[in-house]
Amino acid sequence: MIKQLSILAPAKINLFLHVVGQRSDGYHLLQSVFQLLDLSDEVFLKTRQDSQIIRINPIPNVLPKDDLVVKAAYLLQSTLGVNQGVEIALDKKIPMGAGLGGGSSDAASTLLGLNHLWNLALSKQDLMDIGLKLGADVPFFIQGHNAFVEGIGEIITPIELPVNDYLVIFPGVSIPTKEIFSSTELTRNHSRITITDFAEQYSKLTMFQNDLQVIAEQKHVEVKNAIGWLKSMFPNTQPMMSGSGSSVFCEIPNTLNMGHCLSELPYGWKIYKVKSLKQHSAYNLVPSNNLSSKLMSSTQQGSRQVG
C-alpha cells in the first residue's frame, strides 16, 4: 500500500552563540539558544513498493551523496535494516548556507516522516541518536521545541520563549560552516552561562553575542553590510548573525513597514518577515514521553559542527 506525507521543516535562529571550548577531536563546544521560526521548507514523502530511495526534484549542484534528505533516508534504512523505499520531494524556502538550519531541519523532518510511514515506532531519542550522525543541529529539530543547546549540539534543554516577530536578511552569500569554525582567529573560551542567566537577561541581549559573527564579517563583507543595514533601518534593535552565517536578524515591531524595507533592500538580498514558533508542527508525531532508546550506536560518530 502506497502512503504519503508532507512535513514542514522550520528554520531556526540562534538568539546567541558562544564558543566555550574545543574537544580533542576538533569539535567546538557551544552554548546557544535555538528559536524556531515559521519560515519553513516542506518535505514530501511517498512510499514505494521496492526499497529504492529516489529524490524527485534534486537541488541544483547538490550531489545525492551530499543531499541531507537522501542521506537521512539511507541512514534510517541501513540502521534499521528496512527494506521499504521512498520518493522524496522538497519545496525549498530556507536559503542554503544561511545559518538558519534548513538542511538539518529537512533531514530531521525526513526522519520523523519515515519513522511514521515505515511504521518503525522509534522513540524521539532513537531518532535524535540517528540524526546526530547527519549533523549536530538535527537532534534539535527532531525534539522539536525551542531549546538551550550545549556541547556540540547534542545537549538539548527545552525552554519557553515568548512569541516575537523578526526580520531575517539573507545577503546573498552562502557560508560553509567549516570555513568559520576553522579560523585561527576564532575565540574559543567564552565564559559559560546558565539557563537562569539567559532567562534573567533575555530582555537585555547585550550580554549575549554570536562569537562566529566577527569572523564571518572579516571573511564576507556582505554579513557586515547586512548588520549595518538593519542597524540603520531599526536603530533601537540589536542585529545579530544566525549560526555561522550568512543570515542576520533583529526583533521588529508590529508596525513594520514592509514596503519601505523592500524598496530599500540592496540588490541580491532576500528579506523575510517571520514569527517565532513555540514548537515544531510535527512535535506530536512521535510521543515525547517515549524516550527509551532501541538502538545501540555511537551518537557522536559522523556528526558535524553546529551551524
Largest sheet: 6 strands, mixed
**What average pLDDT do the residues reach?**
91
CATH architecture: 2-Layer Sandwich
Number of strands: 10
Note the beta-strand portion: 25-35%
SSE class: alpha+beta
Tell me the domain tally.
1
Estimated helix fraction = 25-40%
Count of discrete alpha- or pi-helical segments spanning 4 or more residues: 9
The CATH class name reads Alpha Beta
Question: What's the structural blueprint in terms of helices and strands?
Answer:
Blueprint: E1 4-22, E2 28-48, E3 53-55, H1 68-80, E4 85-91, H2 102-117, H3 124-132, H4 138-143, E5 147-151, E6 155-158, E7 165-170, H5 177-181, H6 195-201, H7 213-219, H8 221-233, E8 240-241, E9 248-251, H9 258-264, E10 270-275
Parallel strand pairs: 3-4
Antiparallel strand pairs: 1-2, 2-4, 2-5, 5-6, 7-9, 7-10, 8-9
Helix pairs in contact: 1-2, 7-8
List keywords for this structure.
307 residues, alpha+beta, Ribosomal Protein S5, domain 2, six-stranded mixed β-sheet, four-stranded antiparallel β-sheet, 9 helices, 10 strands
Question: Could you walk me through the main structural features you see in this protein, from its secondary elements to its overall organization?
Answer:
Helix 1 runs parallel beside helix 2 and helix 7 packs across helix 8. This protein has one domain: 2-Layer Sandwich (Ribosomal Protein S5, domain 2), CATH 3.30.230. Strand 3, helix 1 and strand 4 form a beta-alpha-beta unit. The protein is α+β, with helices and mostly antiparallel strands and 307 residues long. The protein contains nine helices and ten strands. It is globular. The strands form two sheets. Strands 1, 2, 3, 4, 5 and 6 form a six-stranded mixed beta sheet that branches.
